[in-house]
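tool_log.txt
---
The assistant was asked to compare two proteins side by side. It first ran the structure predictor on the initial sequence, then on the second. Raw inputs and outputs are pasted verbatim so the downstream comparison step can read them without reformatting.
(1)
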Amino acid sequence: MTRARGRIAGAIGVLGELLITTGLVLGLFVVYSLWWTNVLADREARQQGERMREGWAAGDTPAAGPRAFDSGDGIGFLHVPAMGDGEVLVTKGTDPASLNGGVAGYYTEPIASALPWDEQGNFTLAAHRDGHGAKFHNIHKLADGDPIVFETKDTWYVYKVYETLPKTSKYNVDVLQPVPEESGRSRPGRYITLTTCTPVFTSDYRYIVWGELVRTQKVDAERTPPAELAS
């Protein structure tokens, strides 16, 4: 009887050690997913952004119209004060390999994004909500009237939020339409759409924010930000 109890106690001890080990491994995985990937992604995005700004300072200019701004390092920086994440580099594409670099990406499919300098259309962007930079983690803090500013080499584009959709299907591509009718708009204009996963720590649904261009401001020699970013 004593020997049997000893075996049971030993088995329980081994099981306990396995559970502790499993817990530690899971904990380390969470740390890696939600912290270390952010560190790596932010470092990569910062290096890309610095290269792009160096190119701007060196006088790089588009040789074939505005879309030549679409360099390998990005097209500009997104500034969203309500999200509190500083500037976000914007590059081409929304596949995970692109977004994992701590950036926001503009859509090339299933509906190709317009770009801010286009005369009309919808500038559609995606970024991670958690991990890999988590640039849109605080998207839920955006409210009607909040500014969204996009910075290029020579122009600040100032948008204002006018509608949000806290939850929709990941397959709902209508939110990316040139005229986002689901947001309440029915006429061509110059829109911006931010998309990311929701709820937090999942990718089951999408969170959408729509804004509309209200003005532009030329970049001066000091790159003085617009008033919406100065406050």
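(2)
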Amino acid sequence: MATTVIALSSAAALGCALLAGRWHLRQKQRRLRRDREQFIESYSFPSHLDDALRREYPMLRREQLPLVHRAVRSYFACWLQAGYRPVAMPSRLVDAYWHAFILDTRAYAGFCATAFGRFFHHVPAAVASHAGDMGEAMQRTWRLCCAQELIPLDAPAGVPLLFEIDARIGIPDAMRHDIESLRKASTDGSACSSGCGGASGCSGGRSDHDGHGDSGGSDGGDGGGGGCGGD
């Protein structure tokens, strides 16, 4: 009898220790994610990236650059919040800025190490499209951007900055999106059909509403604008 009681007590203690260990691990992961989100939000991008972007888009005024920075931060936050799952690129402006950042290899590698704990690759749109699930990646980006800006998924008005910045700035090759299809897909589970480098629409099919996993990134310069996060 005494042996049984001791065994039960030991098992209960072990169970409690395991639960406590898991709780502490989850708390540590949450703190790390908050730290990374804050780092992305407060990071000072190298000033030469602004010059590179304005050379590519001369109509971009200096007073509009903070808006671009906000959109870039939003995209990087999406990848982190998606658990490193693929996120589609809805903006040619942001994509061009990302390309310029990658070319500053030392600064970009340092940013990735602190912001993500790994390198965030940039996959050209033409390559990413062959991997499939680009519609799902675009829908994931839409949901996360809406959450960042507290926009209800079924809102009759309101578009996340990352999805409208091209048109707001007025660049000639602006990416344009079927916003109503994106809203519909976010509420009925259908998947958006175009992920990178063009206008997005939606088609039938279930999407992943979770956003926790382990892939991400994109790398290169396809020249056509757009790209996807995932590696």
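---
observation on (2): The beta strands are 87-88, 122-124, 191-192, 202-203, 227-229. The chain is about 55% helix and 5% strand.
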